[in-house]
Amino acid sequence: MNLIQQLELLGQYRANQADPRGKAHLPSGLPQPGLDQAIPGLEQDFAALVQTMDWQDLEAERALLLHDLQQALKLEHATIPPYLTALYTLSNKSSWHAQEVLRSVVVEEMLHMTLVANLINALGGSPDTAAADFMPDYPSALPFDVDGIKVNLLGFSRAAVEQGCAIERPRDIRASMLFQARPAPGELTIGEFYLILEARLRAMVERHGEAVVFIGDTRRQVREGFYYDGAGATFPITDTVSALLALQTIRHQGEGVSDTIWTGNREQFKSFPEVAHYFRFNELLQGRLYQRGDTVQSGPTGKPFEVDWEAAIKIKPNSKLADYRAAPEIHAHALAFNTAYCDFLRQLNRAYNGEPALLQTGIGCMFSLKELILRLVNNPLPGSTEGWHAAPTFEYAAPGAAVASPSTTLAQQAD
Q1: What are phi and psi of 380, to 5 degrees?
Q2: Residue 301's pLDDT is what?
Q3: For residue 29, what is the DSSP state?
Q4: What is the model's pLDDT at position 146?
Q5: Of residues 140 and 15, more confidently modeled
Q6: Range in 8-22, 30-44, 90-104, 110-124 with the lowest mean pLDDT
Q7: Letter string b/e over residues 395-408, b meaning 16 or more CB atoms within 10 A of that residue's CB
Q8: With the C-alpha atoms ordered 374, 377, 380, 381, is the resulting torsion angle positive or negative?
Q9: Domains in the chain, CATH or no CATH each
Q10: DSSP character for 400?
């Protein structure tokens, strides 16, 4: 069952809850609350996992969960600059499959950020996408060093797509790791990290009740109406079921669900169905689409297509502003891009902290950054013997760090 169908079930369930004549039975297609639910891929239930955790009073538990959710927000964002870099270094003659895979994954990472922000707000916290340390310093480990991966800013290439596979790769849930009281940095996978968040949330509700767990101002929620392509849509988080649906959506869209590869809610244009992120990247590596009946083990067996790995602009990996000191014009373009991108994050921060209507503008502004990126990547690096071009550096820039070019800053567009 996909997210759109689950949201329809959730709407019906809530309508029945509000109708005194209705019977509010929680449909089986929605996440089931409680600690007696089985951990995906394991024989144990969440009650067994919770027993391995240290527990304090409600507010200490809330603070710990909010801290980890802020790290989840940073985790979901940390993949966007690498995917944008690969997307916007594709040449005009490149495969539309490559463009669609990268664009769709970026859009869904934005959905994941928004769902995490909604959950932070639901618990009474405040999401933060504007702080200087929200921007990774590439090459960068992911928060908590999950998966032990160093993420790089690479132009479109086989290496960039392989990196996407490494980030999104499905991994078996390991009881030996999940049940450690304090797993060491680099030991947890992304899926295991999200299952720990889910266990803490389930336990808080079980111990204290929904009424004192979900205390956030519902007006801060990004509600329905923000369509995220094949990913589905945003939805408000106000209770355990919607919170669990958000966490499970994030995990499923990245890695897939157990032994299935499908995650989308519609047929993409050209009539190919949408698969989880790892499998989209794997389609590019294999040069072949997945089709109905394919599995994790079989790999893609559908229609073949060509990926021209040379149809891309060759950029210097993990570029820094300091690399452009001898080229003032390139330096100015790089600083202008960084300022615009951080303005986008500051606009997101406003959307997530009481001005949710700004989100739609923010998403559009993220893709409008293409013009600024192209100004960079179309410039050969002076003196480069490897034929490198300039590249976006995705470094933190304070408000007003550069004069907006070619138009106003994103923050000004929102006002």
Answers
A1: -60, 145
A2: 94
A3: T
A4: 86
A5: 140
A6: 8-22
A7: bbbeeeebebbeee
A8: positive
A9: 31-286 (1.20.1260.10), 321-414 (no CATH)
A10: T
